[in-house]
Write a structure and sequence with these properties.
By secondary structure, this protein is α/β, with parallel strands linked by helices. The chain has helices at residues 7-19, 24-31, 44-50, 56-65, 77-85, 131-139, 157-163, 176-188, 238-246, 271-279, 296-307, 311-327, 363-377, 382-387, 430-437, 445-456, 460-476; strands spanning 70-71, 89-92, 95-98, 100-105, 108-113, 147-151, 168-173, 194-198, 210-215, 251-266, 284-294, 330-342, 349-353, 389-391, 396-405, 408-418, 426-427, 440-444, 481-482. It folds into three domains: 7-101, no CATH class; 108-377, Rossmann fold; 382-482, Enolase-like, domain 1.
Length: 484
């Protein structure tokens, strides 16, 4: 399929991509998104008309992002030779045709299959980057020097990403072609600490333990099992259940498991309890972040649009989905992320709602969230909390709205928000604002509340009792954090 590029060839290819500014920023500027659209996208012809045939940037976008042929004389000679030699494209008369897609991902490039039907290996299609894959990148914990597993790794975006800061990365996938892509992508990006293996879930690494497991599995919940890169053979969300059951024993103490996922809400059951039951007594703290919720009909229709260009076939497929969900009493399909951390002792489970999509790495916010939950929920009593040192997280935002009243501004409302997207806005008043600013990480909570009582001229006891409840809610809303 490919010829793994030699170091020099790989760096020449990457240099051409970078020199031509074939980057996610440029793609977002041009198309409004930076992951390749499905080939049958209803606006595919508009995307094509957005790229010219003159500049190298446009031709690289045309060839490797939209998967269209370009004229061979638009590509630098050495670059053309390099991409032919390693099998990224081939010459067809005066045209160059792509064999794969190449997607810029942060500072790296990820090679994947062109599209599901355009390969003789259609049943072993290796998908390109997706929104969930990008989300997982944003949430991934990037502690250096770790042993990392990329479970259901596909062409290896998370392995390539983790390879930059980790000691070693293993990428596993049941599709043997995925290994070839991971090996290729490692060489293309000059990353040497990735090992790709083939096997069913954890079966490929039966006894190994990791500090970090990243997983963007085929979580789509559907009656179909034909698209192995997104469907799975399990009933409803039981692939997720299986992964959640097995992951803990592959984590080192203190190690994290982070997965994108979808799960169902069954009529008459609390979905929160269902997930909590799945996760109880597994030796891990669990943080479930719900990001979206869809009714079965809209879920089915959205999922079908992703893969099917044929609208007439859709109504039959849609019926199948609806019947499937009805028979299984599915009321809604929810999506989000689940994070586990292996920790001896009494474990906590927290469920929160994502407020907005991440636009940058939230690695430190996720670590901070775990520390905060430890402080709030792991056997912590009032005395421990009073002894804790807290501070205000970077980037907190305060919004004040005032109106003109006779001859001066009168403050109407004040809200404060940890704008990373993990927390919601909270209404506060000026007293609370003053109290929040007094947490500077140096003094324990008790001392902060005592001096606040003195300033406000209120009894210390009252300030401590009420203040402690307030501090808990500030921690829960990400408006305070334990200082390091
Ligand atoms: C949604 S794709 C994600 C790929 C990659 N993690 C990414 O984010 O781009 C899911 C991947 O899981 C793989 N897969 C499906 N079933 C699997 C199984 N039982 N064990 C391991 N991998 C599996 C598929 O081959 C596919 O590459």
């Amino acid at each position: 399929m490919f010829n793994i590029p030699a170091k020099k060839t790989a760096s020449q290819i990457i240099e051409t991509f970078k020199h031509a500014d074939f980057t996610s920023d440029r793609l977002t500027e041009k198309f409004g998104f930076s992951i390749p659209p499905p080939y049958h996208h209803p606006q595919a012809s508009r995307f094509t008309s957005q790229v010219g045939e003159e500049s190298l940037t446009d031709n690289l976008m045309r060839l490797f992002f939209l998967g269209l042929p370009v004229k061979s004389d638009t590509l630098p000679l050495q670059f053309a030779q390099n991409i032919f030699e390693c099998g990224l494209a081939f010459a067809d008369g005066v045209l160059v045709r792509p064999m794969v897609l190449v997607t810029p991902m942060l500072q790296q490039y990820v090679v994947s299959d062109l599209h599901p039907n355009n390969t003789k290996y259609a049943d072993q299609y290796v998908p390109t980057l997706s929104q969930p894959a990008m989300h997982l990148l944003s949430f991934a914990i990037t502690d250096p020097g770790q042993k990392v597993l990329d479970l259901c790794g596909g062409c290896g975006p998370h392995a390539i990403f983790a390879g930059q800061f980790s000691e070693s990365v293993t990428s596993t996938d049941s599709n043997p072609r995925a290994k070839q892509f991971v090996d290729f992508n490692s060489a293309l990006n000059g990353i040497e600490n990735i090992q790709a293996v083939t096997g069913d879930l954890f079966a490929a690494i039966p006894a190994d333990k990791y500090n970090l497991i990243l997983c963007n599995p085929p979580f789509v919940i559907s009656p179909s099992t034909t698209d192995g890169f997104r469907d799975n053979k399990f009933e409803l969300d039981h692939l997720l259940y299986k992964i959640l059951c097995e992951a803990p024993r592959h984590l080192e103490e203190g190690g994290f498991f982070q997965t994108t996922c979808e799960w169902v809400q069954i009529r008459g059951e609390e979905w929160t309890e269902r997930l909590k039951n799945w996760l109880k007594d597994n030796g891990c703290d669990a943080w479930i972040i719900e990001a979206n919720c869809q009714a079965p009909e809209s879920y089915a229709s959205n999922r079908l649009k992703e893969t099917s260009p044929d609208q007439s076939a859709d109504s039959e497929a849609l019926d199948q989905y609806i019947k499937y969900f009805n028979n299984k009493s599915v009321e809604a399909i929810r999506g989000g992320l689940i994070f586990l951390r292996r920790r001896a002792g009494a474990n906590w489970q927290v469920i929160s709602t994502l407020q907005k999509k991440p636009t940058r790495s939230l690695s430190s916010e996720i670590k901070q969230g775990f520390q905060t939950h430890d402080l709030l929920y792991s056997d912590v009593n009032d005395q421990t909390l009073l002894g804790a040192k807290l501070c205000v997280p970077e980037g907190l935002q305060l919004y004040a709205s005032s109106s003109w009243d006779t001859n001066q501004w009168a403050l109407d409302t004040m809200t404060i928000e940890n704008a990373c997207g993990l927390y919601s806005k909270v209404s506060i008043d000026e007293t609370m604002q003053t109290l929040i600013s007094s947490f500077n990480g140096a003094a324990p909570v008790q001392r902060v509340l005592e001096s606040f009582a003195l300033t406000m001229e209120i009894p210390v006891e009252m300030a401590t009792t009420q203040g402690l409840a307030f501090v808990r809610s500030l921690l829960e809303e990400g408006l305070l954090k334990p200082s390091q």
